[in-house]
Write a structure and sequence with these properties.
single chain, 284 residues, alpha+beta, eight-stranded mixed sheet, six-stranded mixed sheet, 14 strands
């Protein structure tokens, strides 16, 4: 396994980021500001795509659930968040962002908890960016990120030249193969074949794990008896980026079942690498 050939380059300078990534992050910031004014539920309704999904763990229309929630002012039910890292397809129509979240309540907006979110964004037919999938995990403390907005991407990214359908088929096959290996060889070994030095693992109750060694060690200690199954996914038009989602189960004294979302990047050799993996127990 030649992980040394996969180099991820953090680009801290805003000017060096792709215009579409900066635009997507600016929309995320506008989303967070709107939540302060309109409240969290109404901001989510505005910035989620009409076809956005909530993973319960089965995918269901996200806006249906949002409309059933009671609208509450930000002072009673607030979330403060910002994008800190992510990526966007070279074709500019789909990407992802993640960053820290602080939950607040009360007139002094005191923190009531912390988390880390990850959102899949899609550009709509009118050119606006809107959230397609949003998934988060609670953390024991405020999650630290490098300063500013950074991009993490493979050193030799895929340059296209392949039909989107073929890229999507390869992406889904990579996700299914990972799930098969989790069942056959265990999570730590299975993930080791697709991780890079900047891959992220988000799990409830833990600060996100970053990098091959940290993730493998955590999985070896905490991910025994886990199985997972692919539901669906999407590859970008450029074939360099994609996401998948599905359902995981864990057999233990307290069995778990819930959704997962994975973000993938593809290199010039056509190989898909896992950039982020988020999972949490179902909130049905």
């Amino acid at each position: 396994m030649l992980l040394s050939l996969v180099v991820l380059v953090p680009l801290a300078a805003q000017a060096e980021l792709p215009a579409s990534l900066r635009e997507m992050a600016d929309t995320e910031r506008e989303f967070a500001r709107t939540a302060r004014v309109k409240g969290v539920r109404d901001a989510f309704l505005e910035f989620f795509a009409d076809d956005s999904l909530a993973l319960t763990p089965a995918p269901v229309p996200a806006k249906d659930g949002l409309r059933k929630q009671q609208a509450r002012p930000f002072s009673e039910n607030g979330i403060i968040w910002e994008p800190r890292t992510g990526d966007v397809a070279a074709s500019g129509e789909v990407g992802w962002l993640t960053g820290p979240a602080t939950f607040t309540a009360g007139p002094e907006a005191k923190p009531t908890g912390y988390g880390c979110y990850l959102s899949i964004w899609r550009r709509q037919t009118d050119g606006r960016w809107r959230v397609f999938i949003d998934i988060g995990t609670p953390t024991p403390e405020l999650v630290a990120f490098p300063p500013g907005l950074t991009r993490t991407t493979v050193d030799r990214p895929h340059r296209g030249g392949e039909a989107q359908a073929a890229a999507a088929a390869g992406l889904l096959e990579s996700d299914r193969r990972l799930n098969e290996r989790i069942g056959a060889d265990g999570a730590a070994s299975a993930y080791g074949a697709v991780l890079t030095g900047q891959s992220r693992l988000h799990r409830p109750g833990y600060v996100p794990l970053v990098g091959t060694q940290a993730i493998a060690a955590w999985l070896a200690a905490h991910a025994t008896g886990v199985g997972s199954e692919t539901t669906s996914g999407e590859a970008s038009q450029a074939g360099d980026f994609g996401y998948t989602y599905g359902v995981y189960t864990r057999k233990s004294e307290a069995p778990e079942r819930g959704p997962y979302v994975r973000v993938w990047s593809r290199d010039q050799d056509g190989r898909w690498w896992l950039m982020a993996d988020v999972a949490h127990p179902a909130r049905e």
